Please model this.
Amino acid sequence: MTIQPLNLLAIRRNLPSEMRSAEWSRVPQWTRERSFYMAGVTRTEILQEMRDIVTRSASGEAGEFELRKQWEAALDAADYQPEAGQEGTIKDLRSLRRFNVALRTNRALMNGWALKENGLRPGPIQAQPGWELVRFREAKAPRDWVERFVASGGTVYEGRLIAAKTDIVWGELGSVERYDDGLGVDYPPFAWGSGMNLRGVGAREMLALGVMTREQIRAQRQSAETTVIASPNASLESAPLITDQDLRDSLATDLGGLAEWSGDTLLFTDPNGTRPTDEAGLVSTWSAPLPPALHDIAPDGLFQRQAALDFGDDPERFARRPDRDQWDDLARAVGRLADPAQARRTMSAVASRDDLSWVEILTGSPIWRDALALSSLAQRAVAIVSAIRALF
Amino acid sequence: MVKIEIAFDDADARDLLERLRSRLGETENLHDAMGTAVADTVRTHLAAKKSPNTGFWSRVADSVTHEAGADRATVSIPATGAALRYYGGTVRQKPGGPLLTIPTDDVPVRDNTRLAARDMGILAYLPSRRPATKGAAGVLVEGETYTTRKGTTRTRPKPGGKLLYILRTMTEHRPDPTVLPTDLALAESARDAALDYVAAEL
Model:
């Protein structure tokens, strides 16, 4: 059976979660391919709406204009409001950019996955044993894909970026460890917003260019017939739907216990989540090492702790940064120490940068000076957060 | 009479023929390979079409897929709008629905999307003199608000404002056979895939 892009959606389970793109990208491909998620979206009904929109788009049922109207109507019905200070940004689910990124990235990944899986089937892999990396869409600021291809272990043949279909170069091209914009997949579009794609290269051309020998082509075909490909393709044939429990268990393992299920929602509680805690608990959380999948996200995966420390270093420079992520991290951290009933209001108040008069009051206070004097990073960060919380 | 006897060790050749017979008997695999190659040709052809602002054709190209069976392979292009451009046709306003809103080149593109009228701020509606003649119902131009003597706020065309949208009850589209590669190009890609399929066994 030829694989269709919608097959990928069919085996995915909805996963409402607080996790952001950087965190999701570190979850292994197996788990991600089985999860339907949007960064930072915890509401099941909103996630389901985007899933429905992606399905309608992939099946050719409706165009983007109509689908955006559907999305806006659903957000209205859900009484969705963006967080303070995030209106119109990519974090605002109502923004055109967020809608386009969610829909187009999902669709591109589904198409890329089906392309790869079908290309690895016995017939196509025999006739076309290679892929060529080609540009399908012009970019205003194109990335240097030749450099990436070579750095990922690929060889350039007569100016063309060609390799065997089972070459590791394809996985390296989308690697999140290697590239900040990597999508963590071994198929197009490889990186966020990339216009790159794959085209099959025939056996005779692969031989003529010297990319593969006849024996390698045969071995690759035999491997395609006998190897269980580590992707949803295998599940499609052996177990049509993985259970929620499978996915939950898998994510729990991937995230080293740092995620917690609250009903149907995966809350990325520690160290970057919103779970209420006290100062001692936060110091403990921010002192513990992260699981291997997450610890290498720059600078060290501890977003909230880093935001607090950066704020402590220079509040005014921090306030001028265009990156809203750090403000959100700081606001989340402050919210965790607040009275749970007031946490959301406190978070919104800190996240909004409309009125920063509190920064001057803060930096003039003795509690602030005491906080900066602490040498332990975790203790200093928590003391900074605590000092901010005291003002709200 | 001289006789020369030649002993053939044709095990390799017989093995090759056996493998070829076996491979060619796997018709679904062969058709899968041919379908993949034809789909590749269609995708490459579509991706070469220019839509620098919106990336429309690259999304159409990306959507190409195929299905293979024992007696055929089918290539599909599910992306919305591709069939209309290839086959042509008439698009009509939905009964009771809004008019079709056709953006002009003066409508800005943001994030590969030509902005919708509702994202464009104040617009003024100028009806067609002969409503709905050949589908033309009016236009939307850049507008501005003003206050009447009675204190009512109204909208009017902005002096020197641009024409942004054409409103129609219907649009007609001619078939465009160049949306797809020629039949010859498609047949060649299928044939090449079949030859590659065999060549890999030689």
